[in-house]
Amino acid sequence: MNKDILSLLDGLDVSSNEMRFFIEGISGSWDRYYKDMQARNIKLNEENNNKVLEQALKTIFEEQAEEPELEELEAINIHDFVLEYCRKEMLSFRQIFASIKDELADGIKFVVLPSELSDSKAKKKFDNAVSAYAHKPSGRSYDLHDYVPNFEVHRFNLLVQFDTTVFGSGKTGICFTDSFLVYKGIGVLPHDLYYYSKVESMDIDPDDHELSITGLSCTGENREYFKYNCYKITPKLMKVVDCVNKFINQPSLKLIKHLTSQ
Predict the structure, then answer these.
(1) Angle at the Cα of 42 (from 37 to 43), degrees rounded to 5?
(2) CA 134, 138, 142, 144 torsion: positive or negative?
(3) pTM above 0.90, yes or no
(4) Residue 190: is the preceding peptide bond cis (ω within 30°)?
(5) Domain edges within the chain
(6) How far apart are CA 73 and CA 18, in angstroms?
(7) Contact, 25 vs 88, CB < 8 A?
(8) How far apart are the first and last CA of the chain?
(9) Among 186, 184, 180, 170, which residue's Cα sits nearest to residue 240?
(10) 170-223, pLDDT tens digit by residue?
């Protein structure tokens, strides 16, 4: 592995095989880029020297000489190279979620998918969720600029809604979008919203019907527990939670967090 790249990652756990394999990919890509830039720089220097020589000869022979236009390579530093590499390699949550979306439908009993919103029952559940909790909670936020326009879930970014109400109104539950999840339990004020990029871990306790989240929420919470009574959503909810953990454990995202926090 490239020593300069490893020095950038000082303090980050790079012991897993997945992480080491990813860093080796970056190292190989950087080495190829660096060698290519060296070769291009040699060629460019030769071209610039020829331009200078050409103008010098014109001066000697009393011809009209012009200031030569010398070109320069715009090289990227290793820090920015690694960031750009990671951003290109990172999968979006929507891409990861796509692998399970066809396994979640339950006839609009407890689960609502975007493809079902043309159904009046599904639309009512979704509209009630937006009204009750599928928006930015009141209270302090660590960074308002992180949130979507109008601070609420829209049809175009909803991936799945879990309805945890007794009578199916959709007024409590969990909405997962392409960039955050937002949820509310019965009598819970305020509700809360977590961006996946701010989540450190997410787990489901199938026995206690409890979703636990470690990370930084929009109201400044660092760890929360969401209990739900509707045990029937657990198997499908676990699939989505697995997607969140796959997203946040990507080596690319871990490196981005590490490099942008320095």
Answers:
(1) 100
(2) positive
(3) no
(4) yes
(5) 3-89, 93-260
(6) 34
(7) no
(8) 21
(9) 180
(10) 999 999 999 889 988 876 655 788 899 899 999 999 999 999 999 988 777 788
Q: Which residue shows structure tokens 């979620």? A: 97
Tell me the CA distances in angstroms from 116 to 9, 119, 131, 154, 262, one per residue in order: 44, 6, 19, 14, 44
pLDDT 10s digits, 92-148: 999 999 999 999 999 999 999 999 999 999 999 999 998 888 876 655 444 444 444
**Cβ(130)–Cβ(155) below 8 Å:** no
**Amino acid, single-letter form, for residue 210:** E
**How many Å apart are CA 197 and CA 160, to the nearest integer?**
18
What pLDDT is stored for residue 70 in this prediction? Answer: 64
Contact 109, 125 (CB under 8 A): no
Rg (C-alpha) for the chain, rounded Å, is: 26
- The span from the CA of 162 to the CA of 178, in Å, is 15
